[in-house]
Write a structure and sequence with these properties.
Blueprint (H helix, E strand, L loop, with lengths): L8 E6 L5 H16 L11 H13 L3 E6 L10 E3 L7 E10 L10 E9 L8 H15 L4 E3 L7 H9 L34
Parallel strand pairs: 5-6
Antiparallel strand pairs: 1-2, 1-3, 2-4, 4-5
Helix pairs in contact: 1-2
InterPro entries: Acyl_CoA_acyltransferase, Bact_Acetyltransf, GNAT_dom
Keywords: Acyltransferase, Transferase
GO molecular function, one term: acyltransferase activity, transferring groups other than amino-acyl groups
Amino acid sequence: MPPSNPRPTIDIEPAARGDLDALADMWVRLARDQRTYGSAIRADANRETMRETLAAHQVNDGLLVARLGGRGARAGTATATATGTETDSIVGFVSFSIERGSLDLDTTRGLLSNIYVDPAYRDRGIGAALLEAAEDALAERGADVMLLEVMADNEAARRFYRRQGYDSFRVTMGRPLEERDDRGDRSENDTHSKEDG
């Protein structure tokens, strides 16, 4: 837990190339946590792949960090405060992009890939500041809406997103294939397309 020193500023700023290892480590912690809610992603096994993915986001200006005692936020970014020491440490990050699909849509959608705040710095507005900064960046690039996914059992995350104004858009359903003996009522509507926008 951060010491109770004066409340320093948390700057939301673009990630630097030198931040990628620390961000990959944070992503591993995020992925481990998501396994609690049913995620099948193997955190440690995917660290290097995610480091490369985060590097691509960084190159495309889609990777922001929450930096304690930051190096100076870019103009117009959100800021938050937290109790901690004046250091140059990353306490959270967000990655995002504009959706690039093969179908023509009547809206431009931004996609939130990952958002993470170190547990010691949660409930201080940092996640909301990261989310707002991602929304602002995507709006500047022409996005009309931002989409994100959250594990159905992660009620804390769902509550956070609802407080930020997010509503359910699409529901992903799954079932173990070993349980195929009970197929349910087949007379229901079976119309569906993953590509329906």
